[in-house]
Design goal:
The protein is of the alpha/beta class. It is 45% helix and 15% strand. It has a single domain (2-268), classed as Divalent-metal-dependent TIM barrel enzymes (TIM Barrel), CATH 3.20.20. It has a 9-stranded parallel sheet with strand order 3-2-1-11-8-7-6-5-4. It has a two-stranded antiparallel sheet with strand order 9-10.
Length: 269
């Protein structure tokens, strides 16, 4: 298995510091969350020289920038066009940095927009992005998140887009927590399109997002890993751990401790 973590784990770390954390704890990848004021500073505004420096640093430290985590959403008719345009610019950034995945959201369906209309707009937006993404060797991965937690809804979008450059970022929490699905059912439904995976443990209550140490919550990460290993998944398991959803002691130690559990699970499979 390939392991990475999102910059939510170290929002105040520079890119070098984040990549050094990855090498220290044994992660092969790093996933920057953009437009969140994180200190890695991987943003659209990077100059050509700065982009070359980022790619060189990644290569120097042997840590792949495995995915750019965007906040793009596409189901609001008032903003979808601008979101497509911005995502196209991130495709250029991904190419410059040697990144092969972009994480995007569907978004919360606005009041007055039906799910059918939202699905159509999401499909249309992703279809606009797909040819360029495919030509540049980048996969646009729609996360199981917000109003797109139900795997059947995500599968409908994938079938509508019907392009190999558009895929799924399977966040294992949200289909179980908010999508009326089991781990197995989500995997079975999304399998044809899974190219990136977010892992974490926590509670499935909808009252608040609560993350817990791996193996102490209500999400079976080992089951998810077993399912992925069974089909030869060769992408990343990217830990998304967010300060504010975890107690202070857990946040302080999670990067080192969580990968130990993940690697133990892998050894037991």
């Amino acid at each position: 298995m390939n392991y990475s973590f999102m910059s939510f784990s170290c929002p105040e770390a520079s890119l070098r510091e984040a990549l050094e954390l990855a090498t220290k704890f044994g992660y092969g990848g790093f996933e920057p969350r953009v437009e969140s004021n994180h200190a890695h500073k991987i943003e659209l505004e990077l100059s050509k020289a700065e982009r070359e420096e980022v790619a060189a640093l990644s290569q120097e430290l042997g840590v792949e920038i495995c995915c750019l985590a965007l906040g793009s959403t596409f189901v609001d008719p008032d903003t979808a066009g601008a979101q497509v345009d911005k995502t196209q610019r991130y495709l250029d950034l991904a190419v410059d940095l040697g990144v092969t995945r972009l994480r995007v959201f569907g978004g919360k369906i606005p009041e007055g927009v039906s799910r059918e209309q939202g699905t159509d707009l999401l499909v249309e937006s992703l279809q606009k992005l797909a040819p360029e993404a495919g030509a540049k060797g980048v996969s646009i991965c729609l996360e199981t998140h917000d109003d797109w937690c139900n795997p059947d809804d995500v599968a409908e979008v994938m079938k509508g887009v019907n392009h190999p450059a558009v895929a799924v970022n399977w966040d294992i929490m949200h289909p179980v927590r908010a999508g009326n699905s089991s781990m197995q059912a989500a995997f079975d439904t999304l399998l044809p399109w899974i190219k990136h995976v977010h892992v974490h443990d926590g509670l499935t209550t909808l009252e608040s997002l609560t993350m817990l140490p791996m193996g102490t919550g209500e999400l079976d990460n080992k089951e998810a890993m077993s399912l992925l290993k069974g089909v030869g998944y060769d992408g990343y398991l990217s830990g998304e751990w967010i300060k504010g959803t975890m107690d202070e002691a857990f946040f302080a130690s999670h990067l080192g401790e969580e990968i130990k559990v993940l690697k133990r699970y892998e050894s037991e499979l």
